[in-house]
Give the backbone structure.
Amino acid sequence: MGTKLRLTGAALALVLFAQAANAQTTVELPQIVVTSSRLGGEITGSSSTVITADQIARSPAQTLPDILGEAAGVQVTHIYGSPTGVNDAVDLRGFGAFAQSNVLILVNGRRYQDFDLQGFDFSLIPLNSIERIEITRGNSGAVLYGDGAIGGVINIVTKSTPTTTAAKVEGLVGSYGHREGRVSASGVSGPWSVSLFGNGVHSDGFRDNNKLDQGNFIGTLKYTVPDWSGYLNVATDTQRQGLPAGLPNLPLVYPITLATPRASVTPFDWAHKQDFNITGGFTHTIAPGADLIIDGGIRRKFQQSLFYNYFNGAGFSYDTSTATPQNFVDTVMTTLSFTPRLDVSHHLFDVPNRLLTGVDVYNTQYNSDRPMSEGLPPIHSYDIRQTTAALYAMNTTSITSNFDVSYGGRLQYNRIDGTDAYSAAVDPNAGFYSTNPQAPPVDRGEWQYAAHLGYDYRITPVFALFGRVARAFRLPNADERVGAGNPFGITNPANLDLKTQTSSDAEQGIRINWQQLTFQSSAYVMDLRNEIHFIPALFVDVNLDPTRRIGWENSATYQLTDDVRLHGALAYTDARFREGPFAGNEVPLVSRWSGNAGVTWNIVGKTLMLDVTARYFGERRMDNDQANSQPLIPAAATVDVKIGGEYDRFFWSFAVQNLFDKDYYDYAIASAFTPGYFTAYPQPGRTALLRAGATF
């Protein structure tokens, strides 16, 4: 409460300062809201960023996570250094290893979050299909979009309404055998329009057993007439990748260490995935200022992965020549959704209002068999069904022409049913467990709620204040309920009945738009209860003691000349345990300081353009180091450069990532038993990528 009062006091001080020092200017600050492509509405009072298609095309970053990482307060954790961002995690407001479960991802305003620990795979969306990306920080998005929006919401809006018939073809080649082809096409005929996007990628990967083959396709059909519009969207992808695992810093278990960063300690492990998603719906103007939106969808995801035992030699020493399959994962997940809603502009007490209200119904069925090897009977068969039904409303009132207030809430019923069918007859460890290896069933329902109150006060034409308070919640996903499974049987089995995580946060910020300068700064505090966290030493997920995040995020752009623009971001994030045995300790995998700075230069109009971005992340605790006793992941800074241009219908670019060839890693797991021993995931050094194509 004391922190919230200090934020409010700071806001009042800024109001008095701005009124006393009303600077002369000719540039007016527009009303700034977060526009949702799904609902066409706003979350007043939230810190927000919009990344445009032009910024995506010009960025030296080559993956969607790294493009998002240029926004203030966004921390990216790389696992295998994939050229498409596979397995990378995007973190908003300090959740470390569980960022993917605490940042809600939307595609065209619809939830695209998976009911497993993989979360959202950013490589599924072709970069050339993106119109813009909307980042809404903080947990207020839970009112409109539901559980999981603890750190924030990222809405990826695709190019789905073409105005002309056109096509684009491009090819890319780069380091480590990277080959990629991208194609897009659009057509218009009367009220009908269609857009198609596809790409195929192959990469040998930086590490041994790090090969990636992937294909993606997105197609959208739209029909638009006065008062009516409808759409049908189909997306599919396939992915095959090797899993090289981390490398130890000392040769205590493996003879391979970080001294050989391209090596793999798991040369045979692999993962495959297939996705299919179809959504459709329509919008009807039922009265002036009132739109009815009806849509729904189905998504099917299939995953297979195989992990080997590399310690079957004499004396249980590491020996790849005797490796045998140890754990095969075969998972099928189906998600059905139905999301009718209303968007109504109205007048209440003679002032303009906008009401967004609707119903969300989601049903996810998760089935996962866990035999030792493909084709064998499963040791565990997990069957988990989660059903959620919610009613929500968000109203924004323009009290005056320069003062908006929004308020809203969500009431959601969550139902979870899960069982574990365990077969001792095919379990080689049967008889060695100290506890029953079968997870107890769960059959439980609960009510949860989210709430938001925010304001936006444009004090002068160039200076604005914004702020909010909110409450949100996150449900455990299926993999968190199942856990990793313990092959030694010395701890508890999976906990299908994890508690729901909740958060309360408050935020206060300012926005400035003065001549060539655009600046945004905000501070926040977030308190969490029952935060869900995986403990590698126990092989299960648990609910943590209460934790807290306190942060400060800043972003700025400055148009130095007509052809040169400077941009930068700086964030401070302090994530700590506030109760329990780790009280006062830092939450793992969260850097205190992170930021970036860059320049965009149109050297010769659009014929020759240069973009340079430098990134920095500070030290962070390793995963599994809640005790804060192990070494820190070192701070690192990298520089990316991209030069390119357009001429007539042709375009090209040449990009270099990690220009100065820095050795670094930003993810590591600390040993639970051996001080100073850890496993890290080294990242590629200097890499290059050449891109060329044409439009027709």
